[in-house]
Structure formats: structure tokens, C-alpha cells
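User: What would this chain look like folded?
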Amino acid sequence: MATVSGITVARAQEIEDNSVVDGSIVGNSLLLETGDGTQINVGAIYDTVPLTTHESDVTTHGVATGEIVGTSKTQTLSGKTYVDPVIQGDAVFSASATVDIPTLAPVQNQNNTTLEVTATTYGTSTDPMTATVVCPPSGAIRVDMFSRMWASSGQNVWLSFEVRETDGSGTVILAENNARGMQVIGENAQSVAFSYIVDSLTPGTTYFFRLKHKVSSGIGTYGNRVLIVSPSIG
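Assistant: Here's the prediction, encoded as C-alpha cells.
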């Protein structure tokens, strides 16, 4: 008994010669190899997407002046910003930046000269006890006041402060009042201190602080006054 396949030896050899027996990836191309050694380039493995006009704009993004090459762990790149990069291997990246941060040092003004006032309202003051600072990123500035104070018999003497934008003639940000300050009654001199944080200010804006005075009647006296204005870090 015999089995007839219908395929001649020559046809079988032809099928074998044209069958894929191996394959490899070169760059972005898939290469197949048939039984007779013929290579077939199937084409690209993945699509290449051209840069948009914005992405290829070297005026906006700059031009990279370095590239990662070889196996050295120390590489220099400049002119590019990398966001969520995929990094393989043990590469080490370092960067430096210059950040402009407003000066956070406190400003202090002290006056040991005795000051006498008769004004019964805070009014407009030309008092030299002022301080000017730039608001920090926190948007808050702390004010500290100190003075020896006394008044005519039975009278009240107050010390408060005002805040303006830029300078002494700028827009009033916070007006003086009795609740935001110090009060002494009568002729017995007392050393008093007061602290207050002015918040909700605009970072980077210059603010002007000035002491304000008044007496209920008669004469109000101030000695050894101190004004300290401190930008608050947080």
C-alpha cells in the first residue's frame, strides 16, 4: 500500500527554501530570513512621530550642547529641561539654579529721644520711627513695638502703627487703632511691648510701617521707642 502526497521533491524543496527560518531586529526594522538565505525587510517596528513646530523651536527650547555617550558616569548636558525622563543604568545627573528670594532680615529702628504729644487723634505723623521691608513668599510680616510711656494725671496715652504700600504716601493697607497697640494710664511711666503679625500681604511688594501716637488729653510722653519689622518665613 502506498501514500501519494501530490508534492514532488522539487516542490517540497521550493516550500522549504521560501519558509521563514530566522528573524532579527536591526534598528527600527524587522528582518526575516528564509531557508535559502534570502532576507526580507518587513518594515518599521514602531511609528516615528515628527516634532511639532513648537517642539522643534530651538529659540524657545534652546539647543542641547551635550549628549550622553560611551560608558562614562560623568556626562555634561546643557540647554534642555528634562521632565519625567526614563533613565537606564547608573547615570548621575546634577543641576544648579539661581533663585531670587527677598531679603528676610528684620529691620529695626530705635529712638531714645523723649517724644511728647498733645494730639487726641492719631492723624498724620511725620515721626521718624519707620521701617520698610519687602514681603516674603509667606505673605506675612511681624511687627514688634516697645516704649516707656506715661501721660498727664488720669489720662490715657496710646502707641499704635500703620502699614502702607511702598512708602509713607502710599495706599493704606492697615490703619492704626487702639486694639492694635499699647495703652498706659496716668503719670507712672511703664515699659510696654506689643507684637502683631500682618498677613494676607502680596509677596514681593514693598511695605512701609510707621509708629502712630495720641493722648486722651494733656500730654502723652514716650521714651526709648523701638520698632522691629520682620518678614515671616512661614
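The mean pLDDT is 79. If you want, I can go into more detail on any region.
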